[in-house]
Amino acid sequence: MDMTKPISVEIKVCDLLDILKKCDGFAATRDLIPVMQHLGFCGGRVLATDGVVGISVKLPRSYPNMTLPADGFVKLLATFDDEMKLQLSISLQDSGGVVTCRVADYSAIFHSYSIDEFPIIHIPSAAIKLPASEFEAITRLRFVAVDKGSKPELAGVWFDADGWGVTTDGIRLAWRRPVKGGLRNLFVPVYLLERVVGWEESPSQYVDDKNGRFWFLYPNCAVFAVKPSASFPDVRGILTAGIEACKKAHGFIGDREHLNVVVRRLLLMAQDVNAKLELSVEKSLLILRVPATAQYRDTAVERVAVKTHTGGTVSSMCVNGRLLLDAVERFEEFFLIEQGLVAFSDERTYGHIIARLVN
Questions:
Q1: Model pTM greater than 0.85?
Q2: If we measure between CA atoms, which residue out of 197, 135, 188 comes closest to residue 159?
Q3: What's residue 1's pLDDT?
Q4: What sign does the CA torsion over 149, 211, 209, 201 have?
Q5: Which residues, including other chains, have CB under 8 Å from residue 240's CB and lie 6 or more apart?
Q6: Residues contacting 147, CB < 8 A, separation 6+
Q7: DSSP string of 226-258?
Q8: For residues 282 and 289, what is the distance between their CA atoms, to the nearest angstrom?
Q9: What is the torsional sign of CA 78, 82, 87, 90?
Q10: Sign of CA dihedral 263, 265, 270, 274
Q11: DSSP, res 122
């Protein structure tokens, strides 16, 4: 390609900005490979990738093959009114070139790499339908998954051969029971989910390709993440034992909103979101207490009226306050067992175990 005469493209700011916002979080943020800090315009699509996650979005009109800085260009467009006209004047040669951006009386010049330097994203064709219920399960279980940097094999939701959807961070475990037509033998990276969970539409299809990538496919967009090489640990034994132990255990059913307020108030008193909280079940009461520590000598106690059921030998335990808060925000039925605190919701379709702390 040798383009000596500039090509001009005119479009409303909002028509391009709405598309480019989808690319947020996909382009590289460090200059290890400078071109990957750009958006690539190629074949009627805009592309972005940092090598671990990537996106390809269909454009409403054709553009010359070019690249533009992902962060700088998008932030610039966001400063203008949606209905204003954006004019791009593109002058490119084989080695790259420049793109002049004009909006009203403002103009800026951006360097463009040759599109041949940009990693092209090929969308796989053999896609499988993703039921809305399965995407909901993935989003509901992701709160336990760890950050990719620590243990990549735990940074996702794993659906085993029997259809159990599970996540764990080594301290707690969450699951969704198998459902008819549910996912099987599939790892869904949370670091991909975090980039799309706020979108208005849900993915309609997925692909688990042979190159180690997991894809979500939308009508006009595709996103992928490179899966970790290590396998998800086998946690079915812990899960099964926890569920079985609940048949003979002290437990309670409480109001999510009220329990949320109570736990937050206790953590506020402790001045530590990770404070140890002691909980015990007595008749129709759940008693929550902040034990005194070397750093925090005062104690705080809350008594909450709940529906209780008794059994087993464990009637009290200590758990991490932040993890308990995560649990009461999502679950309403709880059991105290030797391993820790077990929680259920949705007629026990979803479950959760938090390891107990030493009293």
A1: yes
A2: 188
A3: 45
A4: positive
A5: none
A6: 155, 191
A7: EPPSSPPP--HHHHHHHHHHGGGSEEEE--HHH
A8: 13
A9: positive
A10: positive
A11: P
Chain centre to alpha carbon of residue 204 = 17
d(CA 266, CA 118): 52
Query: In this structure, which amino acid lies at residue 89?
Result: S
- The answer to whether 323 touches 304, Cβ cutoff 8 Å, is no
Strands (DSSP E) along 94-143, which ranges? 96-103, 106-112, 128-129
Distance CA 291, CA 62 (A): 64
- Between CA 184 and CA 186, with CA 185 as vertex, the angle to 5 degrees is 95
List the chain residues with pLDDT less than 50: 1-2
Token pair in block for residue 100: 């002049």
Contact 355, 238 (CB under 8 A): no
**What DSSP element (H or E) covers 344?**
strand 340-345
Asked if 293 contacts 274 with a C-beta cutoff of 8 angstroms, the reply is no
What one-letter code names the amino acid at 6? P
Identify the residue whose tokens are 């794993």: 158
Retrieve residue 238's tokens: 């812990």
Q: What is the pLDDT of residue 92?
A: 77
**What does the pLDDT read at residue 67?**
94
Print burial letters for 104-129: b (CB count within 10 Å at least 16), e (below 16). Answer: eeeeeebebbbbeebeebeebeebee
The strand ranges marked E within 154-297 are 156-159, 165-168, 172-176, 186-189, 205-208, 213-218, 221-226, 250-253, 276-282, 285-290
Beta bridge partners of 357: 318
- Among residues 188, 184, 173, the alpha carbon closest in space to that of 138 is found at 188
